[in-house]
Amino acid sequence: MNAPDHKVRLGFLPEGDDDGLWRIAAYRDAIAQPAWGVCFNTDCPTEFVTAFTTALAKAYEEGPESYLARPLVGSEDRGSFLGVVPLLQRGWVIDRPRWGVFAIDSPDGLAHLEYTTGDLDPEAELTTRDARWHIWAGTSVNHPYWYATASTDTPVSLLAAVTDSIPPRHSSAGRRNATATRPAPTSPRSPHRGHGSPPRSRPAVPPHTAALLPPARASPAGRPAPAPAPAAGRSPPPSGDR
Asked: 3-class SS at 58?
C-alpha cells in the first residue's frame, strides 16, 4: 500500500521470508532508500500497529516536516526521550542489560523497550532486528513472544503513539490468554545485540502482562508455519511492490 506520492509505503507480508508481518517505511524521494523503517512481527498486538498507522496518517496529512521529522537531541517535542515517557509514567524501570543498550522494563520484567546507542548500519536497521528501537515481550531477547523495531530516524511522535498504546497495569480477567503455552518465535537477534542467558521455560504470565500478548491463533489448514528468520535477522526492506 502506497501513499499518493509513494513516499510512505506499508507492506503486509503474511508469507514473507521471516515473521515480519507489517513493514512500514517513509522516503524523502520516491526512488531513494527509506528515510526510516519499522517492523511489527506476526505476534505483535494489532493495537500497536493501529496506533502507529493512525499517528502516521495524521503526520502524513501535516506534510514531510512531520512524517520525516528526525529525532533531535535536546528538542522539546522531538527528543528521543519522549518515546519512553508513557512507559516511565506507568512504572517501567530503566535498565542497562548490555553494553551500548538502554532499556525500559515493565514492572514484571516481561516487556521491554530497548534503545541502542552509537553508530548503526543503516542497511542493517532496515533488514534485521538490529535497529535503534526494539520493543519486545518475553524472557529472552532471542526468543520473544512478540517484537517491533524502528530505525534511527523514525519520528519520535510515531514511537510515542505506540508506547502510549501499551496498556497500563490492570487486571485482564476475561481476556483469553493462550499464549502462556504457545512456542516463542524462532527469529534470533544478531550477535550485535548480545545473546544474554539461554532461553528459559516461559513462566506464568501475570495478568497485566497478559494484556500485552495476543491470543493464540490457529494456522489455516494446509498453510505452513512462518519460516524462521535467517541468522542475519529480518527480510529485505519494504518496497513499493509490496
From this structure: helix
Helix (H) or strand (E) run with residue 66 in it: helix 64-67
End-to-end CA distance of the chain: 7
Residue with cell 518475553: 138
pLDDT greater than 80 at residue 237:
no
H or E stretch covering 12 = strand 8-12
* CA angle (210, 215, 219) in 5-degree steps: 155
Q: Whole-prediction pTM value?
A: 0.70
pLDDT in tens, 184-201: 333 444 434 433 333 333
- At residue 1, the 3 state secondary structure works out as coil
87 beta partners: none
Rounded (5°) CA angle 23-206-214: 30
Task: Write out the E strands in 49-120.
Answer: 93-98, 101-105, 111-116
What is the model's pLDDT at position 25?
96
Distance, CA of 168 to CA of 242 (rounded, Å): 34
Please state, in angstroms and as integers, the Cα–Cα distance from residue 49 to each residue in 53, 74, 78, 99, following that order.
6, 28, 21, 29
The Cα–Cα gap between 158 and 185 comes to 25
Question: How many other CB atoms sit within 10 Å of the CB of residue 43?
Answer: 22
26 pairs with which residues across the strands? 8, 36
58 contact partners, CB below 8 Å, separation of at least 6? 66
Three-state SS for 239? coil
**DSSP string of 163-186?**
HHHSPPS---TTS---GGGSPPP-
